[in-house]
Amino acid sequence: MTSSTTHFKAPKKCPCGGGLYRKCCGRFHPEFAKDAVQPAPTAEVLMRSRYSAFALELVDYLVATWHPSTCPQPLTLEGNPKWLQLDIYGAEQQGDKAQVHFCAYFQVDGEVGEHEEVSDFVRENGRWYYLSGHTET
To answer: pTM, whole model, 2 decimals?
Structure first.
């Protein structure tokens, strides 16, 4: 797991599928952007950057973008699978609340699985935070 005290090797392609990492989610990850880090401008962009953070095991970023009222303490990524692909099905925003419907594909022990979720986000003081998710059945 990568924290602010360990060396971070940035990928060329962004795990979220949005192009080059440095032009995509890398702008939001302090491990890559350093002092030039930007807040995600929308809940969908935050969702993509959080998916990439899971794929790259950037625990500090996940905690920083998870609303304090719902963030598990401590957050560990023990058993984190290999993340393969992210599909965004839709995003809706009403004022300072938003939802993003997505499906994330992963691999564990050679088997591919999927995690479909509708995530709730809230914007406070100009920053978006992940609140919670509801899995699709």
So the answer is: 0.91
